[in-house]
Design brief:
The structure is a homotrimer.
Chain A (H helix, E strand, L loop, with lengths): L14 E10 L8 E12 L7 E5 L14 E9 L8 E11 L7 E9 L8 E8 L5 E10 L6 E12 L4 E6 L1
Parallel strand pairs in A: 1-10
Antiparallel strand pairs in A: 1-2, 1-9, 2-4, 2-10, 3-4, 4-5, 5-6, 6-7, 7-8, 8-9, 9-10
């Protein structure tokens, strides 16, 4: 997985923090509930535990995620705390696409699949823009399953940690 | 379209069953309605009537859908009954991405476009995780058009039929 | 960016018109609001200001967007008026996939990111089918951020202008 690194980039978007707010409906009463979730996503493009891989782009699978057009497939660990050693409660599976001509924005489409903890067996479906040079980025929660059926909501993503030299990152979902 | 087959896989995820439940809103009253839909999707990666094709992955367009990172584009027939000979009521058009490191999970983003029958002219927009080694998988209905405007909901997908040797399948949406 | 042009195609889908209707919710009252937005998206596959690029397909990054399986990444200007000279109020960033076997339909997943004007700082998340040989195509608004948090809705897309020889287009969102 030769993902070229742009050494001139002075930001690193693979580690981020997200604040999640949602409204759930019950049938037939449709009573809204509002909840805040906090969790962390670890996005590693390099290393023996790499969880993201470029598969298409203007230069094919060798394209850099820092360039417009590159498509990345991810299966990122989701943890309760900011360190990879903290309890894994799920996976973030789907796609990131570099969708900004200057290379500084991603379009995200993925599922957060909870495999342990309070929300085990449920999922959240995410779609949104990640202009990663901004401190905070909001994204949409478009759907969910299990206890999150009929969910609507949004999240806020904040870069938590970056390791430019190795393209590794941690994501906090709040 | 040379889609390599992994002969060691003992499951086949291209045939599945889905139970669909949704809530529709009317403007300005926003009265929810709940409905169950049942339909079948036929997902054939091989044969003269192939309706799914790998277009990207770690090995480029020749990547196997059974491997992490592979992107598949689909235009699958949707029928009223479980056999391909039953009445075609629509098409399932969009993308499947293999988004699990061990190759056993897909991320789905597609439209169900109804072209005949009761829902002709309407669509459902789907996003979800398909961990196809599980008997039942839930996914999100994120939006819709026509009679399904303002829809919210979820679906349940069950593997109905598999033909590993030929990578052909039938999907039931209930 | 060598995007092959199919000279036999007698339509051009990269210019379209969209009517957008949405319902926003406020917490805790969840009062629906209904609004119509009109805006234009300029989709240029050629020229020095090209804003869309093919990155995958049956023939790799050289695949034509007019053929089944091709994946396009876009960062299209969004303007108030139909001409590119009118005020730019945002960008449409995401993916188009040719998802119809005969090449005449796309599956769209993208964000409309408002960067100026009344909706500056907000986004709309879009998913839908674009059968571009039809005069009008409806699509889903699956989520939003900023003032469009908890949004639901749909849009109508109409081809506004086409320049087949150069694969350039203008999109009106109404």
């Amino acid at each position: 997985m030769a993902t070229p690194l742009n050494p001139t980039s002075n930001f690193f978007f693979f580690i981020f923090t997200v604040t999640l707010l949602y409204v759930a409906y019950t049938i037939p009463r449709h009573q809204p509930r509002e909840t805040n979730l906090v969790f962390y996503v670890h996005d590693y493009l390099t290393g023996h535990d790499a969880s993201a891989v470029a598969v298409a782009g203007r230069a094919g699978p060798e394209s850099s995620i820092l360039h417009f057009g590159t498509v990345l497939v991810v299966d990122d660990p989701v943890t309760e705390g900011p360190t990879i050693e903290s309890r894994e409660i799920g996976r973030a599976q789907g796609m990131y696409v570099n969708s900004q001509l200057d290379g500084k924005g991603l379009h995200l489409v993925f599922s957060v699949i909870f495999t342990d903890g309070e929300h085990e067996g449920s999922t959240l479906e995410i779609q949104g823009a990640d202009l990663f040079s901004m401190a905070e980025r909001e994204f949409g929660v478009v759907s969910g399953t299990g206890k999150f059926r009929f969910v609507k909501g949004y999240g806020v993503m904040v870069t938590e940690f970056m390791d430019i030299a190795n393209l590794r990152a941690v994501l906090k979902l709040n």
